[in-house]
Design goal:
Strand order of the largest sheet: 3-4-2-1-5-12-11-6-7-10-8-9
Shape: globular
Radius of gyration: 20 Å
Structural class: alpha/beta
Order of helices and strands: EHHEHEEHEHHEEHHEHEHEHEEH
Length: 346
């Protein structure tokens, strides 16, 4: 009998939609078939989220992750009563909520590193609240990178499309300054290794250009000639099937059709515009280059609709499914390995 992986879900910012979509996702009985879920967060906020959404689950406060049972109709939580409930308001920036969200992310990471959970899923935190709490991180990716002393990369997954970000939350001017051959090569090596872990024996990786028309041989910028092309050539010398750089206005069309197993986007919006046009509300983020499994939603805290039972929980539900499937693949319980998580055979 296949063992269900234990998956922790961090609640995210207490003023955002994270608590709502968490309780609504765990009310879906399919989750208990995929994994043994547990939430890391504040049980009182989760109760408020259930009141707001009309969800009815029995909350069990746990002392340890191992106590999670994965029973339909029950919400298991490692309760951190961190929120001042007298002042709790949906949709408002509060540095205390930013601090708690970072703490919960670290706690889940530590549990994963200790082997107490098999994977973690992140509901969204609010970057403004996090910064107000004194944390300079770009996001949860950097929190986990610091915790694990690694430099992870974000992979966006929707349908047949896998898209990796070279840079994440970075100003465009800074992207141009950051772009170097060794850094692009590092990401290509990481992408190739991750795809092989997913069960893809001969990965095909496309690289998007930074400039219009991928620079047109230097006519519109030299970043392609000076940094990207040498990185692709170095990757190919290592046996990696890296191709490009291709103009960004067409490469994602081919990626959508499955022409490549991974496409490397050079900056945040270049990649996010593509995947959100393909499947807004269904994009799952998978971090690679970490010694743990972590997925998250492809959206933010949506303060404008928090607490109003408007938020769609399907994206978080899909992130839980992918995390559980990747964990099963790591355990060797899936013949197709991690590729099964994305609905495509290797």
């Amino acid at each position: 009998m296949t063992m269900r992986p234990r998956v922790a879900i961090t609640m995210g910012d207490a003023a955002g939609i994270g608590p709502e979509i968490t309780v609504k996702s765990l009310a879906d009985p399919r989750v208990m078939e995929w994994c043994i879920p547990l939430v890391i967060g504040d049980a009182r906020v989760l109760e408020r989220a259930m009141d707001a959404t009309g969800t009815r689950l029995a909350i069990r406060r746990l002392a340890a992750a191992a106590e999670a049972a994965g029973t339909v109709g029950t919400l298991d939580v490692l309760d951190d009563a961190a929120i001042d409930m007298a002042g709790h308001r949906w949709g408002e920036i509060d540095p205390r909520y930013g601090e708690a969200a970072v703490r919960w992310t670290r706690q889940a990471g530590q549990l994963a590193l200790a082997g107490e959970i098999d994977a973690m899923v992140s509901a969204p935190l609010n970057k403004e609240a996090m910064h107000a709490a004194g944390y300079p991180y770009e996001g949860q990716t950097e929190v986990l990178g610091e915790l694990t002393a690694s430099r992870p990369a974000m992979v966006m997954v929707v349908d047949r499309m896998r898209l990796m970000l070279f840079t994440n939350h970075m100003a465009l001017r800074a992207v141009c300054e950051y772009l170097r051959t060794d850094r692009v090569l590092d990401r290509l090596v990481l992408a190739d290794a991750a795809l092989r872990d997913m069960g893809i024996a001969t990965p095909r990786i496309a690289v998007a250009g930074l400039n219009p028309h991928a620079g047109e041989n230097g006519a519109f910028g030299r970043e392609e000639l000076d940094a990207i092309v040498p990185a692709i050539e170095a990757a190919r010398a290592r046996g990696i099937d890296a191709q490009g750089p291709f103009p960004a206005d067409t490469v994602f069309l081919k990626s959508r059709e499955g022409a490549y197993d991974m496409t490397l986007a050079l900056y945040h919006d270049q990649g996010l515009m593509a995947v959100k046009l393909v499947g807004f509300g269904r994009v799952v983020t998978l971090l690679i280059g970490l010694p743990l499994i972590r997925t998250s939603t492809g959206h933010g805290t949506a303060f404008d609709i928090a607490g109003r039972n408007i938020a769609n929980h399907v994206n978080l539900l899909e992130a839980v499914r992918v995390a559980a499937e990747v964990a099963r693949g790591k355990q060797g319980s899936s013949e197709r390995g991690l590729a099964a998580a994305f609905g495509r055979a290797a």
